[in-house]
Design a protein that fits this description.
The complex is a heterodimer of chains A (434) and B (181). By secondary structure, chain A is mostly beta strands. Chain A contains 3 helices and 32 strands. In chain A, helix 1 crosses helix 3. By secondary structure, chain B is of the alpha+beta class. Chain B has a 4-stranded mixed beta sheet. Classes of the chains: A mainly beta (434), B alpha+beta (181).
Chain lengths: 434, 181
């Protein structure tokens, strides 16, 4: 598939559009490889009373382009810029070879602000969508992302994942000034805010299934602990501060338990499950090898995890409460670690050793076949979008940590980079994030 | 830190000269330590010369080598391995003897890995390295209560590069002394 390697010349510089935001918070999104024939779509500037605080059409167009499946028509090529259906002249849109046209309006702030949008098939003139998305104060961008989700789903038949967020760790400075920040941002890198700032490492952020809390590892106090922090109130609780390693938290699908990696005092890391209400601890694995990086199957009845019990790290699956021995899942390649299962439970994303490089791989759980999705040298930490279509992961570029995305079929990649520091350990939020 | 180091060094030397160095866990340790404490840094300089001359004295040469070794406090490892390399054994042993000779000394063992592979697996690997060093120190007579371990995995590299030279520097356990005095 050589065509997939062809760089698609799309540059989406969101960072430049929002002057006045904290510079270090900004991430820049760049599509590095797209599908060979992206769908042409025109997102016409939205109408509204006076200048809009957010360029809604640009947000929607940016989302669609970033997915790699769409190509947005530049505004300079638009022969008309209507915001109402009555003004639409489809002949003009066919002339500029656009398949779909999105028009809309922003209803004024104050009473009930909302984003009204309509999606038209430019060939047939058919109206495919018409919605009003509520946009309470400061929620215009979110409303635009929701509109993009609906447009994506209408055209491709798969839900979008634009109105979601990502958590990641940013490491800045060097020597004694080095510090780590846990950041939560919109899926397009905007609206970044720091959740934790620490002079000691922060690791492994994990979203609760309802998107209201993050579990993460912090080395504050010069030893590892696992914290759970509310994104609503900011309150946090240390849920594990045992001797040795406290790592790799993963929420159960019901949000009541955390799978963790603990070494306790004997120094050997095994997988455990912690009940968050009772604080009861259940040992899941007991092996002299390293067992870590647990990940729940969507039904909550089994865990995938990394183990080097066969010599090198490979992924295993263990059924909880069955007493059965873990079953090895990955066989191709000398190194497969850090499993993440797709929302539908059919695919496993892993870090895999491929021709001497660490890359993101996907294993089809039914057939056991694996394929390599990314092309970096030190790619790490894949995390599924809630629609299962895209993975976000950490890559190295010119010695710096950046975030990148790749479609689960390998067809589309993009790069999200921060102007400062190393960005790592991304975790994509569930769809229900507030 | 300097003072602690020279004390430990002088103590190790005096033990080595005064008794068979295989049995350093003598109650005399406390007394010797007090005795040489007064001598302080002046003896440390003289000792290296002594060690050079005293080739015929069994144990003296070893102790001199230990003194040199103790200036180093980082143990290096091979890729994805927590086995103590042959070229690191003497260094670990020197630290073990130092701890055995001074029960008040406490050491923190920090395990680290290179940046390759997944972050949490590397935390587990770093812990395993710290535990391997801990076991080796215990074999030399150090006690559990003197040692604590922590693993930072790949999070705290000393070499910032992204090649084998940097990775080799980063696959390590750092021994740091503190507390107890």
């Amino acid at each position: 598939m050589p065509d997939l390697r062809r760089p698609l010349v799309l540059l989406v510089l969101f960072a430049a559009t929002l002057a006045g935001w904290p510079a270090q918070a900004q991430l820049t999104v760049q599509i590095t490889r797209g599908v060979t024939s992206p769908i042409p779509v025109a997102v016409v500037p939205f109408g509204g009373a006076g200048p809009l605080p957010v360029d809604v059409a640009e947000v929607i167009g940016g989302d669609l382009e970033r997915s790699g499946r769409f190509q947005a028509l530049p505004r300079g090529s638009m022969l008309q810029k209507p915001s109402r259906a009555g003004d639409l002249d489809f002949a003009q849109w066919r002339l500029v070879k656009t398949d779909y046209v999105v028009i809309g309006r922003v209803l004024p702030e104050g009473e009930r602000s909302a984003v009204e949008f309509e999606l038209y098939n430019a060939i047939s003139g058919e109206r495919l969508l018409g919605y009003s998305v509520p946009a309470g104060s400061g929620a215009l961008r979110l409303a635009a992302h929701r509109a993009a989700d609906m447009i994506y789903e209408k055209i491709l038949g798969v839900p979008g994942a634009f109105a979601t967020r990502i958590a990641y760790v940013s490491q800045e400075g060097s020597g004694p000034a080095r510090h780590w920040r846990l950041v939560v941002a919109d899926a397009d890198g905007e609206n970044a805010r720091t959740i934790v700032d620490s002079p000691e490492p922060l690791m492994s952020p994990a979203w609760s299934p309802d998107g209201t809390r993050l579990a993460y590892v912090s080395f504050e106090g010069r030893a590892s602990s696992i914290y759970v922090q509310s994104l609503v109130s900011g309150a946090r609780e240390r849920v594990s501060g045992r001797a040795g390693v406290n790592g790799a938290p993963a929420w159960s699908p019901d949000g009541r338990r955390l799978a963790l990696a603990l070494s306790q005092s004997d120094g050997n890391v095994d997988v455990f499950v912690l009940d968050l209400a009772s604080h009861g601890l259940l040992r899941v694995t007991d092996d002299p090898a390293i067992d870590t990086e647990p990940c729940w199957a969507p039904d909550g009845r089994s865990l995938f995890f990394t183990s080097d019990r066969a010599g090198r790290p490979q992924v295993y699956r263990i059924a909880l409460a069955s007493g059965e021995r873990p079953k090895r899942i990955t066989f191709e390649g000398a190194y497969n670690a850090r499993p993440r299962v797709s929302p539908d439970g059919t695919q496993l994303a892993v870090v895999t050793l491929d021709q001497g490089s660490y890359r993101i791989g996907a294993v089809d759980l039914a057939s056991g076949r694996s394929r390599v999705l990314s092309g970096g040298r030190l790619d790490e930490g894949p995390s599924f979008a809630p629609n299962g279509q895209t993975l976000i992961f950490a890559a190295r570029e010119g010695g710096r940590g950046v975030l990148a995305t790749v479609a689960i079929d390998g067809s589309v990649t993009s790069r999200i980079s921060s102007p400062n520091g190393d960005v790592r350990e991304p975790a994509w939020s569930p769809r229900t994030a507030p | 830190m300097n003072r602690i180091f020279s004390l430990g060094l002088v103590l190790t030397l005096s033990l080595g000269l005064g008794a068979c160095h295989n049995t350093p866990t003598t109650p005399a340790a406390g007394a010797s330590s007090d005795t040489v404490a007064a001598a302080g840094g002046t003896t440390a300089g003289a000792q290296s010369g002594d060690a050079g001359q005293a080739r015929a004295l069994p144990g003296a040469g070893t102790q001199g080598a230990d003194a040199q070794l103790l200036a180093k406090s980082t143990i290096y490892f091979d890729y994805d391995s927590s086995e103590i390399r042959a070229d690191q054994v003497a260094l670990v042993a020197a630290h073990g003897k130092r701890l055995a000779a001074d029960r008040n000394l406490k050491a923190r063992l920090e395990g680290h890995t290179d940046e390759r592979g997944s972050a949490e697996y590397n935390v587990a690997l770093g812990e395993r390295r710290a535990q391997a060093v801990k076991r080796a120190l215990l074999l030399q007579g150090a006690t559990e209560s003197q040692l604590t371990t922590v693993s930072y995995g790949e999070e705290r590299p000393v070499a910032e590069g992204h090649d084998e030279a940097a990775w080799a520097q980063n696959r390590r356990v750092e021994i740091s002394y503190g507390g107890g005095r």
